[in-house]
């Protein structure tokens, strides 16, 4: 018996398509069913897009990819800011690490006695830590 497994294809819709579909219900007064038929999407998908559009217009930050261009731009700017903050933290840690090493080296030098004998020569006396 040969059974053929068919997998349902997951369709990906562009943000512009989702926005246009949700605007049919929100702005143009279509029913959810009529908008579903017109755009060829399922009822639950359309209801999700409509809820998402209404919440974005109410000023709430969307989860996932935004529908409106303004919210998508805000998400992109937040991503860039988060990345810049991460890079800043990395640089800050690197600076602290290198200054920590410099401080340690300075402490060692201060504990060692360096005596100038002649104008351009130094005699280093034994250091306790080396």
Q: What labels would you give this structure?
A:
130 residues, elongated, 4 helices, Arc Repressor Mutant, subunit A, 60% helix, mainly alpha
Account of the 3D structure:
- This protein has 130 residues and is mainly alpha-helical.
- The protein has two domains: 12-67, Arc Repressor Mutant, subunit A, CATH 1.10.10; 68-130, no CATH class.
- It is 60% helix and 7% strand.
- A two-stranded antiparallel ribbon has the order 1-2.
- A hairpin with a 2-residue loop joins strand 1 (114-118) and strand 2 (121-124).
- It is elongated.
In short:
Helix 1 runs antiparallel to helix 2 and helix 1 (15-26) crosses helix 3. This protein has helices spanning 15-26, 32-39, 43-57, 69-111; strands spanning 114-118, 121-124.
Task: Summarize the SSE layout with pairings.
Blueprint: H1 15-26, H2 32-39, H3 43-57, H4 69-111, E1 114-118, E2 121-124
Antiparallel strand pairs: 1-2
Main beta sheet strand tally, sense and closure: 2 strands, antiparallel
Order of helices and strands: HHHHEE
Radius of gyration: 32 Å
Supply the number of helical segments: 4
Measured by DSSP, the beta-strand proportion falls in 5-15%
């Amino acid at each position: 018996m040969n059974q053929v497994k068919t997998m349902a294809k997951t369709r990906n819709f562009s943000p512009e398509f989702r926005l246009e579909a949700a605007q049919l219900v929100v702005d143009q007064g279509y029913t959810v069913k009529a908008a579903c038929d017109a755009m060829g999407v399922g009822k639950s998908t359309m209801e999700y897009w409509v809820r998402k559009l209404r919440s974005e217009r109410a000023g709430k930050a969307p989860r996932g990819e935004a529908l409106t261009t303004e919210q998508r731009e805000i998400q992109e700017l937040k991503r860039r800011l988060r990345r810049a903050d991460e890079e800043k933290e990395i640089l800050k840690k690197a600076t602290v690490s290198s200054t920590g090493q410099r401080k340690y080296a300075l402490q060692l030098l201060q504990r060692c006695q360096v005596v100038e004998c002649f104008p351009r020569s130094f005699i280093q006396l034994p250091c306790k830590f080396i």
